[in-house]
Structures are given as C-alpha cells and as structure tokens.
C-alpha cells in the first residue's frame, strides 16, 4: 500500500511540476522604496491591483495602505506577497547609515495636483463679495475678454485693476446623515478684473474662463488658480467623517472624482491627509445570538484632501475598489 501511494505521488509530481516545488518556493525579497503603494506592488508582482486589500488585511504592521515606508521588506511569492516582521532597532549610527542608504535610492514622494477648478463648499458663515449683475450688450453669457458689470464699487473699498474669482452657485448642501446645512456648493467659472468703478458698481473684463459666465455668478476674493502640487501628509490626529457631496453631483463616485467632506481645519484636517472610505456591514442578529457587536467595515477606497475650509474640505478620490456614494464614512490612520 505504501509503495503504491509513493508511486502515485511521484506520478502526480511528474505531470504537475509546480506541485512539488510549491512548498519549497524561495521568495524574492523586495525592499520598499519611497512612493511605493500596495496597489502598485500588487499590480507589479501579482498582476492584480485588486489584491491589495487582501494583502493589507493580512499584514497588521501596515497601518497605511497607500503609503508604506522605505526599508520595509516584502517576500514576493508567485501567488502572494508577505511583509517581513520589522527588525529590532539598530544602534543609532547604523540606523542613520541604513536610512541614508535607503533614501539615496528612493523615488520622489507621491504628490497630487490641484488645478484650481475643483470647487468647494462655501460654508454658511461665508458670504460672496458681490455678483455679476449684467453683461455688455445684454448678452446671456460671457467668455474671455468680454465686458460685464458687478455690484462691487468704491463703497466696498474696491480699486481699479483688482481681480475677483467668479463662481456658479450649485445649491445648498446638507449633511447626508445629520441633515445639517454644510454650505453652498460653488464651481469656479473664471476670473475678472475691475476696470471702471462707481460708488456701488463697476465695469470689469473677463480675464480667464473655465466655463461660461452668466448674470448672478458669485464673486469671491481672487484665488490664484495656478496648478500646484499637494504632498501626502500623515494626519496628526484621528479623523472621522463623511463624504457629503461630489463635484459632478452624480450618484456613483469613483477614482478621479472630486468630493466634498465634513472635515476641515477645525477638526485638524490638512491638505495632503489621506483618508480611507469605508462602509458598515449590516449584521443580521438572528444568526449571531448576541455574540458579535459589529462586523469589520468594508473598505471602498481612499481619498486625499486637496484644500480645507474651517469645517469642510475638497478632496480627490485616488482609489476605488467598489462603488462609492455620498454618505460613505471616512477614517484616518495616524502614526
């Protein structure tokens, strides 16, 4: 019997070569470089960027699924990735030398672009500086180099040549959970420059447009719309909040979309903070008999804050592994 079993195993090994080697597979060791992500590693080695949530859940030492740290070692197998346990701290001199050597090899830190056209929530205590009240020759819309008229004049302290940013009011935004009014969604349309001033009115020229400008458009103090970069920054405190609205207003939110959230500078949020989008999993209590209070949250994706107000912020969804909706929860992980 033993002989027949041995022959059977030998035969299987001949026809399935990988079977005999699988248990003894030697992993390749990869050292994390600055800017590496779990999504990137999963796509590079496993050929599936969707593997990263599973990898994250199996490696408790990884606290940030987007930004992992230089010097961490990964065992690369044919079907999985495993992080090696962190080694005990080396003496200060050795540690400094190792960090210097690692940093000399790393790529540039991951950044995200702010284009200036993302829009924001104008919070309830903020007011526009004025309005576009009319168009030259009674036009309905205006574009670059067109003449418009505003209700901003000398009485408000305005001066000739002063610039203002132009916005379209999209409507009042209420919190999807508490129903609290968060503010008014405003979308950038362009910029204008005052040319001739009366006491309570002025003529202006449109200097730049993203979209057509019409009477009733909001005027706000000029905001430089030059493209700039936002670098990732670890939150200094725990952040928890919600997605309250999206730029597009569509029901389903995905990677690349701009969203507005209920976290601002008053809560400690900063540009560059990464937050993870999660959803509670409904627990059917008739099957658990009181043994479980709640289930692990479902991970939906991640976003990066681009700009903060006092109680709200504008953010970019950088990853989505499932459909995201207004009202989905946000959590952060700190050092």
UniProtKB/TrEMBL annotation:
<feature type="signal peptide">
    <location>
        <begin position="1"/>
        <end position="22"/>
    </location>
</feature>
<feature type="domain" description="LysM">
    <location>
        <begin position="28"/>
        <end position="76"/>
    </location>
</feature>
<protein>
    <submittedName>
        <fullName>LysM peptidoglycan-binding domain-containing protein</fullName>
    </submittedName>
</protein>
<keyword id="KW-0732">Signal</keyword>
<dbReference type="InterPro" id="IPR036779">
    <property type="entry name" value="LysM_dom_sf"/>
</dbReference>
<dbReference type="InterPro" id="IPR052196">
    <property type="entry name" value="Bact_Kbp"/>
</dbReference>
<dbReference type="Pfam" id="PF01476">
    <property type="entry name" value="LysM"/>
</dbReference>
<dbReference type="InterPro" id="IPR018392">
    <property type="entry name" value="LysM"/>
</dbReference>
């Amino acid at each position: 019997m033993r002989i027949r079993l041995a022959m059977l195993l030998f035969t299987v090994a001949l026809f399935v070569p990988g079977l005999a080697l699988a248990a003894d597979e030697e992993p390749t060791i990869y050292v994390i470089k600055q800017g590496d992500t779990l999504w990137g590693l999963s796509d590079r080695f496993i050929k599936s960027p969707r593997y990263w949530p599973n990898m994250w859940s199996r490696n408790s030492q990884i606290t940030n699924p987007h930004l992992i740290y230089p010097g961490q070692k990964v065992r690369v197998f044919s079907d999985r990735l495993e992080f090696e346990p962190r080694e005990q701290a080396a003496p200060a001199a050795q540690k400094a030398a190792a960090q210097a050597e690692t940093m000399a090899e790393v790529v540039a830190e991951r950044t995200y672009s702010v284009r200036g056209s993302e829009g924001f929530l104008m919070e309830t205590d903020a007011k526009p500086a004025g309005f576009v009240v009319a168009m030259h020759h009674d036009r309905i819309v205006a574009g670059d180099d067109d003449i418009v008229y505003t209700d901003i004049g000398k009485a408000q302290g305005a001066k000739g040549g002063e610039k203002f940013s132009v916005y379209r009011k999209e409507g009042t935004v209420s919190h999807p959970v508490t129903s609290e009014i968060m503010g008014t969604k405003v979308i950038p349309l362009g910029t204008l420059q005052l040319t001739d001033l009366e006491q309570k009115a002025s003529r202006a020229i449109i200097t730049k447009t993203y979209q057509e400008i019409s009477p009733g458009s909001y005027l706000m103090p000029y905001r430089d719309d030059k493209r700039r970069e936002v670098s990732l920054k670890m939150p200094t405190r725990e952040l928890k909040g919600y997605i309250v609205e999206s730029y597009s207003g569509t029901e389903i939110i995905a990677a690349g979309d701009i969203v507005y959230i209920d976290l601002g500078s008053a809560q400690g949020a900063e540009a560059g903070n990464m937050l993870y989008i999660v959803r509670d999993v409904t627990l059917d209590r008739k099957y658990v008999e009181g043994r479980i209070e709640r289930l692990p949250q479902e991970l939906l994706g991640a976003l990066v804050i681009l700009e903060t107000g006092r109680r709200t912020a504008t953010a970019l969804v950088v990853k989505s592994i499932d459909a995201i909706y207004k009202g989905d929860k946000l959590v952060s992980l700190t050092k």
